[in-house]
């Protein structure tokens, strides 16, 4: 058991999805009281009953919905001591000139504005109590060039936001860090492999470790950063990518050694 305080609640937005659900399960194992908050309430409830958590509806693109969810957690479940801002609008690869601008606006509204609104709404009660820890979920697309040309910049904004909030709220007892997953074998990504949109073989070949990331690998990193074990860590960006970023320049020299 490695929670911040015995009474605190951990909220995971996007907690019904692949990485969010795996993270929720690990936080339950660590002893947190968990709330799975998601646009898809049915799946949130199913995941919550599977692991012994609570569920609530949230649309992070809608400020009122986020404010209501934060108030509901405080009133019905308890003080929010940990927040995982995981919900995001994903994207398939394309060139910048082929970008659908309405889709671009949805990505900005969800990933940038939605994450900001999530941090301020759930952070308000942490500020009142003078304690809390937050992990945002970025992506390695925030750290290098990729054909996810709206999603990647939106994740770069989340990195900047993480640092801004870490600086602003450190003296208030709140830590804010970011975990950046690489290609992770969630059910949605597995389905994308099955449809031929992405190739797991190509992605695996780009990793130093020779395997893709499991959703629980991301969850363990999040759980560590939320815990007291990370009490002196704030404003950091932690890639969980099986060495995808670190292997990039090796392609200039014939690739990674076997
Ligand atoms: N899977 C990967 O390879 C990968 C890689 C890098 C980063 N990430 C990031 O990890 C996080 C989780 O992704 P995932 O792969 O588990 O995706 P997923 O699609 O399985 O889960 C995303 C969840 O977010 C919810 N959601 C979407 N829009 C929402 C909104 N407006 N309000 C509330 N909930 C909303 C969805 O209902 C879904 O349950 C995301 O931030 C994603 O950008 C994933």
Summarize the topology.
Layout: E1 9-13, H1 18-29, E2 33-38, H2 41-51, E3 54-57, H3 63-77, E4 80-85, H4 101-129, E5 132-137, H5 151-169, E6 174-181, H6 187-194, H7 200-205, H8 215-226, E7 237-240
Parallel strand pairs: 1-2, 1-4, 2-3, 4-5, 5-6, 6-7
Helix pairs in contact: 1-8, 3-4, 4-5
This protein binds nicotinamide-adenine-dinucleotide (NAD).
What is the approximate shape? globular
Helix/strand-derived category reads: alpha/beta
For the biggest sheet, the summary is:
7 strands, parallel
Heteromolecules bound: nicotinamide-adenine-dinucleotide
Global Rg: 18 Å
**E-strand count:** 7
Domain tally = 1
Report the portion of residues in β strands.
15-25%
Spatial sequence of strands, sheet with the most strands: 3-2-1-4-5-6-7
CATH topology: Rossmann fold
Report the uncertain regions: 1-6
The CATH superfamily label reads NAD(P)-binding Rossmann-like Domain
Description:
The protein is α/β, with parallel strands linked by helices and 258 residues long. The chain is built from 8 helices and 7 strands. The chain has helices spanning 18-29, 41-51, 63-77, 101-129, 151-169, 187-194, 200-205, 215-226, and strands spanning 9-13, 33-38, 54-57, 80-85, 132-137, 174-181, 237-240. The model is unreliable at 1-6 (pLDDT under 50). The structure holds nicotinamide-adenine-dinucleotide (NAD). Nicotinamide-adenine-dinucleotide binds at residues 13-14, 16-20, 38-40, 58-61, 86-90, 110, 114, 137, 139, 181, 183-184, 186, 188-189.
């Amino acid at each position: 058991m490695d929670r911040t305080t015995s009474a605190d609640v951990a909220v995971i937005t996007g907690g019904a999805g692949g990485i969010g659900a795996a993270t929720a399960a690990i936080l339950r194992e660590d002893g947190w009281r968990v709330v799975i908050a998601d646009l898809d309430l049915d799946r949130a409830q199913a995941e919550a009953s599977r692991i012994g958590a609570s569920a609530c509806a949230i649309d992070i693109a809608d400020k009122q919905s986020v404010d209501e969810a934060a108030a509901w957690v405080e009133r019905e479940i308890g003080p929010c001591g940990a927040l995982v801002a995981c919900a995001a609008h994903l994207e398939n690869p394309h060139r910048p000139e082929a970008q659908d601008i309405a889709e671009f606006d949805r990505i900005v509204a969800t990933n940038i504005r939605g994450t900001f609104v999530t941090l301020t709404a759930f952070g308000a009660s942490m500020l009142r109590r003078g304690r809390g820890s937050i992990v945002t979920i970025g992506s390695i697309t925030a750290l290098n060039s990729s054909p996810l040309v709206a999603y990647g910049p939106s994740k770069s904004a989340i990195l900047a936001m993480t640092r801004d909030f870490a600086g602003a709220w450190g003296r208030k007892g709140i830590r804010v860090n970011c975990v950046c997953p690489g290609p992770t074998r969630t059910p949605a990504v597995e389905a994308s492999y099955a449809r031929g949109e992405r190739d797991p073989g190509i992605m695996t070949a780009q990793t130093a470790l020779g395997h893709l990331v499991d959703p629980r690998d991301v969850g363990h990193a999040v759980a560590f950063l939320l815990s007291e074990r990370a009490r002196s860590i704030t404003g950091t960006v932690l890639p969980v990518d099986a060495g995808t970023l670190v292997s990039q320049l090796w392609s200039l020299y014939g690739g990674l050694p076997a």
